[in-house]
Design goal:
8 helices, globular, transmembrane, membrane, TM_pro_TauE-like, transmembrane helix
């Protein structure tokens, strides 16, 4: 584990901030070089275990709440206590949203305070580092919330919206691609696990599709990584992302036109959530 960034004095006057939402720092000029080195060592780690633990905690909690709530063709693990669309169902839905919002606010506050703490010790920010402030945190939080709504309504991947947002934020294309891929793992695996436990997965062709997608992803990633590493064409990732978004937009539009043409251009409106 990392050493504490702020050593406690013998007299007890220097109190360490032990908040789980941020890493403490020392603003004293005499310790700025030491603190800056500790920040750099912390950010240089390839596997930040404490962040993995936080993601795993959110992932496990969401799965537990989804199993208790049910929905999307699955029953609750306690169907008598949590009937579909009953008061307990909507209460658990609200708990899921509240938990995610609370976790997001906590991590956002941590990012903002960490950026401020780094600035006080003249941290050597490099291209691709995000210097968070509360206005940018609020804006991108609302933008990602809108991305989730679009993904749910249109059936598109949230990464198609998050990718351009992160590029606009100044994140390097490689980091943006890796981040969206990681998010997809957590979101898709949680939904998949719920369906598996409900016995709704057709294993006869699910395994085939999974294997094909896995191999295709591995081959594509290997090719792109080789091109970017040898030729330094990071813009290729941006062009690929733009091409995928454009293709998806065209296909969604075409599919919608065909669907409503079959219905003689009659919009039936939204169906009931239950």
């Amino acid at each position: 584990s990392l050493p504490a960034l702020v050593p406690r004095s013998r007299g007890g006057s220097d109190r360490v901030n032990t908040s789980p939402c941020r890493l403490p720092s020392d603003n004293a000029a005499s310790n700025s070089a030491v603190v800056r080195k500790q920040w750099m060592d912390r950010d240089a780690r390839q596997y930040p275990l404490e962040k993995y633990r936080k993601l795993a905690m959110v992932w496990a909690t969401i799965i537990l709440l989804l199993l208790l709530r049910g929905g999307k063709g699955t029953e609750s693990v306690i169907p008598d206590a949590v009937p579909y669309c009953g008061w307990a169902y909507w209460t658990l839905s609200a708990v899921v949203m509240a938990w995610l919002i609370l976790f997001g606010l906590c991590m956002g506050r941590s990012a903002v305070m960490d950026s401020a703490a780094k600035a006080t010790v003249n941290y050597p920010f490099v291209p691709g580092d995000v210097i968070w402030a509360y206005p940018s945190f609020i804006f991108y939080s609302l933008a990602t919330f809108a991305a989730g709504i679009m993904a749910g309504l249109l059936g598109i991947g949230g990464g198609m919206v998050l990718g351009p947002l992160m590029l606009n934020l100044g994140v390097l294309p490689q980091v943006s691609t890796a981040t969206t891929a990681t998010l997809i793992v957590f979101t898709s695996s949680s939904a998949a696990l719920v369906f598996i436990m409900a016995g709704l997965v057709p294993w006869d062709y699910a395994v085939v599709y999974f294997s094909a997608a896995f191999v295709g992803t591995l081959v594509g990633k290997t090719i792109i990584d080789t091109i970017v590493r040898r030729r330094g064409l990071t813009a290729l990732l941006i062009l690929l992302l733009a091409g995928i978004i454009a293709f998806a937009a065209i296909m969604v539009t075409v599919a919608g036109l065909i669907k409503y043409a079959d219905r003689e251009w009659h919009l039936e409106g939204f169906s009931s959530p239950c």
